[in-house]
Design brief:
Order of helices and strands: HHHHHEHHEEEHE
Distance between the termini: 61 Å
InterPro entries: NuoE-like, NuoE_dom, NuoE_N, Thioredoxin-like_sf
Strand order of the largest sheet: 2-1-3-4-5
Number of helices: 8
Strand content: 5-15%
CATH architecture of the largest domain: 3-Layer(aba) Sandwich
GO molecular function: 2 iron, 2 sulfur cluster binding; active transmembrane transporter activity; inorganic cation transmembrane transporter activity; metal ion binding; monoatomic cation transmembrane transporter activity; NADH dehydrogenase activity
CATH class of the largest domain: Alpha Beta
Structural class: alpha/beta
Largest sheet: 5 strands, mixed
Number of strands: 5
Catalytic activity: a quinone + NADH + 5 H(+)(in) = a quinol + NAD(+) + 4 H(+)(out)
CATH topology of the largest domain: Glutaredoxin
Radius of gyration: 21 Å
Cofactor: [2Fe-2S] cluster
Shape: globular
CATH superfamily of the largest domain: Glutaredoxin
Pfam families: 2Fe-2S_thioredx
Oligomer: single chain
Helix content: 25-40%
Length: 221
């Protein structure tokens, strides 16, 4: 795919990350994660450990993080599982980055509900701010990816940026979010219109008495 991320040269990657090891804090966290699973089932910890490793790489590089091959192998060795089994997990889920990304990883949902509700406008806003699918901006701030459904269809179109969702987007609101992030300002997380989570815009339209101050949780006045 033309917009696929560029995976770095393996020799360079091994030279930089071949000596990867957990920080003391993450080593303790890894032990706690592995301890959640019964004896003989420690390999089930692969997903949270991949996430932990990606976050450690991100902290070291001041980015959203990624998973160099030696880092994945380090986790495989710790869990005593074949390297290929770890690669299979990391390459299946878009939550894992297989190449370096910027400080902000902008993941735009392009699945049908978001497409019908205006994801093309979201992509246009990104493009006009210099973001290109599969690439990182020259200043290292933004990486843009198109991903499949992120589970907020009622609030389409939406994007996930690092750990946060931004929903009910328009060209203008997406542009404003990118502007805020570029100057270090935290934009409003969640819906960008007047509604709470996925509730109706403007507040409840039915069963309004259920939110009355005089109506208790048992349904009694």
């Amino acid at each position: 795919m033309a917009d696929a991320v560029h995976i770095p040269d393996e020799a360079e990657t091994r030279a930089r990350w071949g000596a990867f090891a957990w920080t003391p804090e993450n080593a303790e966290q890894a032990k706690k994660v592995i301890a959640r699973y019964p004896a003989g089932r420690q390999q089930s910890a692969v997903m949270p450990l991949l996430d932990l490793a990606q976050r450690q790489v991100g902290a070291e590089t001041q980015t959203n993080g990624w998973l160099p091959v030696p880092v994945m192998e380090y986790i495989a060795d710790q869990l005593e599982m074949p390297y290929m089994r770890v690669y299979e997990v990391a390459t299946f889920y878009t939550m894992y980055n297989l190449a370096p990304v910027g400080r902000y990883h902008v993941q735009v949902c392009g699945t049908t509900p978001c497409m019908l509700r205006g994801s093309d406008d979201v992509f246009s806003a990104c493009k006009n701010k210099g973001l290109v699918k599969g690439g990182t901006t020259p200043d290292g701030l933004f990486t843009l990816s198109e991903v499949e459904c992120l589970g907020a269809c009622a609030n389409a179109p939406m994007v996930q940026i690092n750990d946060d969702n931004f929903e009910d987007l328009t060209y203008d609101s997406m542009s404003a979010i990118l502007d805020d992030l570029a100057v270090g300002k935290q934009p409003k997380i969640g819906p960008q219109i007047d509604r709470q989570t996925s509730c109706p815009e403007g507040g409840p339209t039915t069963l309004k008495e259920m939110v009355s101050d005089n109506y208790d949780y048992r349904g009694q006045w």
